Amino acid sequence: MYPCRDLTHEIIAAAIEVHKNLGPGLLESVYLLCLQLEFDHRKIHYQKELDVPFFYRDRKIERAFRLDFLVENEVVLELKSYEGLLPVHEAQLLTYLRLTNKQVGLLINFNVSLLKTGIHRCILTDKKPINTELESRRRDAEMLATNRPSLNEVQS
């Protein structure tokens, strides 16, 4: 059994309802708005178009990434409306999982005739957030620099 199983089933059921009513071929923004209404109807809590900050060279970049949805503060949901999903779309979801320190993500492509063929579930098993990993590398580099013996100490 995987984490957030019941919640991902609820999200998928809501997406299927939207797809059943709208079908494929619309813009991603339309599906996003209708899925928001479906979540409200089903009393599923979410944050929509959530900005996720990112740290680069010890500087915080405020609006580097924007999640389509963070559902129940547990599942990252990324929507697409493409002819076919590419590996870069899954990589994007994995990056969002690391940035948010979440374990479960759904990638849903609405531009398919049968929605279940457009659903991809991602589970991050190595749950190290990117920001923490970068911070750890920076600290390691600083520690090496401060603990490095001087040339005089090496020659003694």
Describe the overall structure.
With 156 residues, this protein is of the alpha+beta class. It has one domain (5-148). 45% of the residues lie in helices and 26% in strands. The protein has 5 helices and 5 strands, in the order ααβββαββαα. The protein has helices at 5-22, 28-42, 87-100, 130-147, 151-155, and strands at 46-56, 59-71, 75-80, 104-109, 119-123. Helix 1 packs across helix 2 (28-42). It is globular, with a radius of gyration of 20 Å.
Outline of the structure:
The protein is of the alpha+beta class and 156 residues long.
Domain unit count = 1
* Quaternary class: single chain
Number of strands: 5
- Order of the strands making up the biggest sheet: 1-2-3-4-5
Distance between the termini: 60 Å
**Helix/sheet category:** alpha+beta
Instruction: State the helicity in percent bands.
Output: 40-55%
Summarize the biggest pleated sheet: 5 strands, mixed
Q: How much beta, percentage-wise?
A: 25-35%
Mean pLDDT: 84
The stretches of 5 or more residues where confidence is low (pLDDT under 50) are 131-156
- Taken in chain order, the helices and strands follow as HHEEEHEEHH
